[in-house]
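Quick note —
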Amino acid sequence: MKTQLKNIFAVLIMAFALTSCSKDEEATPIVDELADVSKFKEFTNATHTLELYSHSSVEQGYNEIKIRIKDNATNAYVKNAIVSWTPLMHMTMMTHSCPKSSVEKVSPDGTVYEGYIVFQMAQNSTEYWDLKIDYTINGTPYTATSIIDVPASIDRKVNSFTGTDGVKYIVAYAEPHHPKVALNELVVGIFKMQDMMNFPVVDGYTLKIDPRMPSMGNHSSPNNINATQSAAGDLYKGTMSLTMTGYWKINLQLAKPDGTIVKGEEIAGTVTASSLYFDFEF
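Predicted structure written out below.
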Protein backbone atom coordinates (compact mmCIF):
# COMPACT_ATOMS: atom_id res chain seq x y z
CA MET A 1 0.00 0.00 0.00
CA LYS A 2 2.83 2.39 0.89
CA THR A 3 4.57 1.60 -2.41
CA GLN A 4 1.40 2.35 -4.34
CA LEU A 5 0.97 5.69 -2.55
CA LYS A 6 4.59 6.59 -3.30
CA ASN A 7 4.08 5.78 -6.98
CA ILE A 8 0.88 7.84 -7.15
CA PHE A 9 2.61 10.75 -5.40
CA ALA A 10 5.55 10.58 -7.86
CA VAL A 11 3.16 10.61 -10.84
CA LEU A 12 1.33 13.65 -9.44
CA ILE A 13 4.62 15.54 -8.97
CA MET A 14 5.69 14.77 -12.55
CA ALA A 15 2.31 15.86 -13.91
CA PHE A 16 2.49 19.10 -11.95
CA ALA A 17 6.02 19.78 -13.21
CA LEU A 18 5.03 19.17 -16.84
CA THR A 19 1.99 21.43 -16.46
CA SER A 20 4.12 24.18 -14.94
CA CYS A 21 6.68 23.92 -17.75
CA SER A 22 3.91 24.06 -20.34
CA LYS A 23 2.40 27.16 -18.73
CA ASP A 24 5.84 28.84 -18.55
CA GLU A 25 6.44 28.14 -22.24
CA GLU A 26 3.05 29.61 -23.12
CA ALA A 27 3.75 32.68 -20.98
CA THR A 28 7.11 33.42 -22.65
CA PRO A 29 6.68 33.05 -26.42
CA ILE A 30 9.77 33.23 -28.62
CA VAL A 31 10.31 36.76 -29.98
CA ASP A 32 11.60 37.16 -33.52
CA GLU A 33 13.77 40.22 -32.98
CA LEU A 34 14.44 40.65 -36.70
CA ALA A 35 10.87 40.28 -37.98
CA ASP A 36 10.07 42.57 -40.94
CA VAL A 37 13.62 43.95 -41.21
CA SER A 38 16.59 43.16 -43.46
CA LYS A 39 20.32 43.76 -43.16
CA PHE A 40 21.53 46.84 -45.02
CA LYS A 41 25.05 47.28 -43.63
CA GLU A 42 27.86 45.28 -42.04
CA PHE A 43 31.22 46.57 -40.82
CA THR A 44 33.95 45.38 -38.50
CA ASN A 45 36.65 46.39 -36.05
CA ALA A 46 39.43 44.18 -34.68
CA THR A 47 37.07 42.29 -32.37
CA HIS A 48 33.49 42.41 -33.63
CA THR A 49 31.26 42.57 -36.69
CA LEU A 50 28.35 45.01 -36.45
CA GLU A 51 25.21 44.23 -38.44
CA LEU A 52 22.63 46.95 -39.14
CA TYR A 53 19.00 46.19 -40.03
CA SER A 54 16.02 48.30 -41.09
CA HIS A 55 12.48 47.94 -42.47
CA SER A 56 13.75 49.06 -45.88
CA SER A 57 16.79 50.83 -47.26
CA VAL A 58 17.94 53.72 -45.09
CA GLU A 59 17.09 57.09 -46.64
CA GLN A 60 16.66 60.76 -45.84
CA GLY A 61 14.19 61.09 -42.96
CA TYR A 62 13.25 58.91 -39.99
CA ASN A 63 14.85 55.45 -39.87
CA GLU A 64 14.35 52.69 -37.32
CA ILE A 65 17.65 50.80 -37.08
CA LYS A 66 18.51 47.55 -35.31
CA ILE A 67 22.03 46.39 -34.41
CA ARG A 68 23.60 43.01 -33.74
CA ILE A 69 27.19 42.65 -32.51
CA LYS A 70 28.98 39.42 -33.42
CA ASP A 71 32.17 38.26 -31.71
CA ASN A 72 34.62 37.54 -34.53
CA ALA A 73 36.42 34.85 -32.52
CA THR A 74 33.36 32.77 -31.59
CA ASN A 75 30.70 33.95 -34.10
CA ALA A 76 28.36 34.35 -31.12
CA TYR A 77 26.12 37.43 -30.88
CA VAL A 78 26.64 39.66 -27.85
CA LYS A 79 23.77 39.88 -25.37
CA ASN A 80 25.12 42.24 -22.71
CA ALA A 81 26.46 45.31 -24.53
CA ILE A 82 25.72 48.91 -23.60
CA VAL A 83 25.41 50.75 -26.93
CA SER A 84 25.33 54.37 -28.09
CA TRP A 85 25.75 55.95 -31.52
CA THR A 86 26.72 59.20 -33.23
CA PRO A 87 25.65 59.91 -36.82
CA LEU A 88 27.65 62.68 -38.51
CA MET A 89 27.09 64.57 -41.76
CA HIS A 90 30.41 65.61 -43.26
CA MET A 91 29.90 68.78 -45.30
CA THR A 92 32.40 70.96 -47.13
CA MET A 93 32.47 73.66 -44.45
CA MET A 94 31.15 71.89 -41.35
CA THR A 95 30.19 68.65 -39.62
CA HIS A 96 26.90 68.15 -37.78
CA SER A 97 24.74 65.42 -36.30
CA CYS A 98 20.96 64.87 -36.37
CA PRO A 99 18.02 63.77 -34.18
CA LYS A 100 18.53 60.32 -32.71
CA SER A 101 17.23 58.12 -29.91
CA SER A 102 19.11 56.14 -27.32
CA VAL A 103 19.88 52.51 -28.20
CA GLU A 104 17.98 49.88 -26.20
CA LYS A 105 17.72 46.08 -26.09
CA VAL A 106 14.75 44.65 -28.00
CA SER A 107 14.32 41.88 -25.40
CA PRO A 108 16.27 41.13 -22.19
CA ASP A 109 17.64 37.77 -23.36
CA GLY A 110 18.05 38.73 -27.00
CA THR A 111 20.95 39.91 -29.14
CA VAL A 112 19.34 42.88 -30.91
CA TYR A 113 19.61 46.58 -29.98
CA GLU A 114 17.40 49.24 -31.56
CA GLY A 115 16.72 52.95 -31.90
CA TYR A 116 15.99 55.59 -34.52
CA ILE A 117 17.97 58.18 -36.47
CA VAL A 118 16.52 61.09 -38.45
CA PHE A 119 18.83 61.96 -41.35
CA GLN A 120 17.53 65.42 -42.20
CA MET A 121 19.76 65.73 -45.26
CA ALA A 122 20.58 63.38 -48.13
CA GLN A 123 24.10 62.58 -49.21
CA ASN A 124 25.55 64.01 -52.43
CA SER A 125 28.76 63.76 -54.43
CA THR A 126 30.82 65.66 -51.85
CA GLU A 127 28.87 65.35 -48.59
CA TYR A 128 28.23 62.11 -46.71
CA TRP A 129 27.03 60.53 -43.46
CA ASP A 130 28.94 58.15 -41.26
CA LEU A 131 27.81 56.32 -38.13
CA LYS A 132 30.02 55.79 -35.10
CA ILE A 133 28.86 53.07 -32.71
CA ASP A 134 30.36 52.99 -29.22
CA TYR A 135 29.66 50.00 -27.00
CA THR A 136 30.86 48.45 -23.78
CA ILE A 137 30.96 44.72 -23.01
CA ASN A 138 31.81 43.59 -19.47
CA GLY A 139 33.41 46.96 -18.78
CA THR A 140 35.58 46.99 -21.91
CA PRO A 141 34.89 49.82 -24.39
CA TYR A 142 34.86 49.33 -28.16
CA THR A 143 34.07 51.51 -31.16
CA ALA A 144 33.41 51.10 -34.88
CA THR A 145 32.65 53.65 -37.60
CA SER A 146 31.41 53.30 -41.17
CA ILE A 147 30.01 55.48 -43.94
CA ILE A 148 26.22 55.08 -44.31
CA ASP A 149 24.44 55.57 -47.63
CA VAL A 150 21.59 58.07 -47.18
CA PRO A 151 19.93 58.82 -50.53
CA ALA A 152 17.18 61.41 -50.94
CA SER A 153 13.68 60.10 -50.17
CA ILE A 154 11.18 59.96 -53.05
CA ASP A 155 8.41 61.25 -50.79
CA ARG A 156 8.66 64.28 -48.52
CA LYS A 157 9.30 62.65 -45.15
CA VAL A 158 11.24 65.30 -43.27
CA ASN A 159 11.05 69.10 -42.92
CA SER A 160 13.93 71.24 -41.64
CA PHE A 161 13.11 74.91 -41.05
CA THR A 162 13.47 77.94 -38.83
CA GLY A 163 10.21 78.75 -37.04
CA THR A 164 8.75 82.19 -36.52
CA ASP A 165 10.26 82.00 -33.02
CA GLY A 166 13.79 81.74 -34.45
CA VAL A 167 14.18 78.08 -33.40
CA LYS A 168 15.44 75.54 -35.95
CA TYR A 169 13.07 72.55 -36.09
CA ILE A 170 13.02 69.13 -37.72
CA VAL A 171 9.64 67.45 -38.25
CA ALA A 172 9.90 63.85 -39.48
CA TYR A 173 7.31 61.31 -40.64
CA ALA A 174 7.78 57.95 -38.87
CA GLU A 175 4.66 55.79 -39.41
CA PRO A 176 2.65 54.21 -40.95
CA HIS A 177 5.23 52.39 -43.04
CA HIS A 178 2.47 51.26 -45.37
CA PRO A 179 -0.51 53.68 -45.47
CA LYS A 180 -3.92 52.18 -46.24
CA VAL A 181 -7.46 53.30 -46.94
CA ALA A 182 -8.52 53.61 -43.32
CA LEU A 183 -7.85 55.59 -40.18
CA ASN A 184 -4.06 55.33 -39.89
CA GLU A 185 -2.08 56.01 -36.73
CA LEU A 186 0.31 58.82 -37.67
CA VAL A 187 3.61 58.86 -35.77
CA VAL A 188 5.86 61.91 -36.09
CA GLY A 189 9.11 63.11 -34.54
CA ILE A 190 9.45 66.81 -33.66
CA PHE A 191 12.91 68.06 -32.73
CA LYS A 192 14.83 71.30 -32.37
CA MET A 193 18.48 72.09 -33.02
CA GLN A 194 20.11 72.87 -29.69
CA ASP A 195 23.55 73.00 -31.33
CA MET A 196 25.33 71.24 -34.22
CA MET A 197 25.51 67.96 -32.30
CA ASN A 198 22.28 67.90 -30.27
CA PHE A 199 18.71 67.77 -31.57
CA PRO A 200 16.38 66.97 -28.65
CA VAL A 201 12.66 66.19 -28.89
CA VAL A 202 10.46 69.23 -28.23
CA ASP A 203 7.72 68.60 -25.67
CA GLY A 204 4.13 69.74 -25.40
CA TYR A 205 3.65 70.94 -28.98
CA THR A 206 0.76 70.03 -31.31
CA LEU A 207 1.11 69.07 -34.97
CA LYS A 208 -2.14 69.94 -36.75
CA ILE A 209 -2.84 67.71 -39.75
CA ASP A 210 -5.03 68.24 -42.81
CA PRO A 211 -4.71 65.48 -45.46
CA ARG A 212 -5.64 66.60 -49.00
CA MET A 213 -5.76 65.09 -52.50
CA PRO A 214 -4.60 67.86 -54.86
CA SER A 215 -5.60 65.92 -57.98
CA MET A 216 -9.13 65.33 -56.67
CA GLY A 217 -10.30 68.89 -56.04
CA ASN A 218 -8.03 69.14 -53.00
CA HIS A 219 -10.63 67.33 -50.88
CA SER A 220 -9.83 66.47 -47.29
CA SER A 221 -10.97 63.56 -45.14
CA PRO A 222 -12.97 63.07 -41.93
CA ASN A 223 -11.97 62.05 -38.41
CA ASN A 224 -8.37 63.27 -38.44
CA ILE A 225 -6.81 63.84 -35.01
CA ASN A 226 -3.87 66.18 -34.47
CA ALA A 227 -0.60 64.64 -33.31
CA THR A 228 0.35 65.12 -29.64
CA GLN A 229 2.63 63.45 -27.08
CA SER A 230 1.68 60.93 -24.42
CA ALA A 231 4.74 61.83 -22.33
CA ALA A 232 7.77 64.11 -22.50
CA GLY A 233 10.46 62.79 -24.81
CA ASP A 234 8.03 60.66 -26.83
CA LEU A 235 7.26 60.76 -30.51
CA TYR A 236 3.94 62.41 -31.43
CA LYS A 237 0.86 60.37 -32.39
CA GLY A 238 -2.34 61.30 -34.16
CA THR A 239 -4.87 59.86 -36.61
CA MET A 240 -4.62 60.33 -40.39
CA SER A 241 -7.73 59.51 -42.41
CA LEU A 242 -7.09 58.30 -45.98
CA THR A 243 -10.30 57.70 -47.92
CA MET A 244 -8.86 56.38 -51.21
CA THR A 245 -5.61 55.41 -52.88
CA GLY A 246 -3.59 58.00 -54.79
CA TYR A 247 -1.37 60.99 -54.10
CA TRP A 248 -1.87 62.67 -50.72
CA LYS A 249 -0.37 65.83 -49.28
CA ILE A 250 -0.52 65.92 -45.48
CA ASN A 251 -0.66 69.64 -44.72
CA LEU A 252 0.76 70.52 -41.30
CA GLN A 253 0.87 73.34 -38.79
CA LEU A 254 3.27 73.21 -35.86
CA ALA A 255 1.88 74.87 -32.72
CA LYS A 256 3.77 75.62 -29.50
CA PRO A 257 2.20 74.73 -26.13
CA ASP A 258 0.65 78.21 -25.96
CA GLY A 259 -0.99 77.70 -29.38
CA THR A 260 1.39 79.93 -31.37
CA ILE A 261 1.92 78.59 -34.90
CA VAL A 262 5.63 78.54 -35.72
CA LYS A 263 5.29 77.02 -39.21
CA GLY A 264 2.52 76.09 -41.63
CA GLU A 265 -0.75 77.57 -42.85
CA GLU A 266 -4.41 76.61 -42.47
CA ILE A 267 -6.03 75.42 -45.69
CA ALA A 268 -8.82 77.92 -46.34
CA GLY A 269 -9.92 80.32 -49.09
CA THR A 270 -7.07 80.87 -51.54
CA VAL A 271 -4.59 78.93 -49.39
CA THR A 272 -4.61 75.44 -50.93
CA ALA A 273 -1.42 74.03 -49.41
CA SER A 274 0.75 74.51 -46.34
CA SER A 275 4.47 75.26 -46.52
CA LEU A 276 4.91 72.48 -43.94
CA TYR A 277 3.81 69.06 -45.18
CA PHE A 278 4.48 65.39 -45.86
CA ASP A 279 3.43 63.69 -49.10
CA PHE A 280 3.25 60.19 -50.53
CA GLU A 281 1.35 58.04 -53.03
CA PHE A 282 -0.02 54.61 -52.30
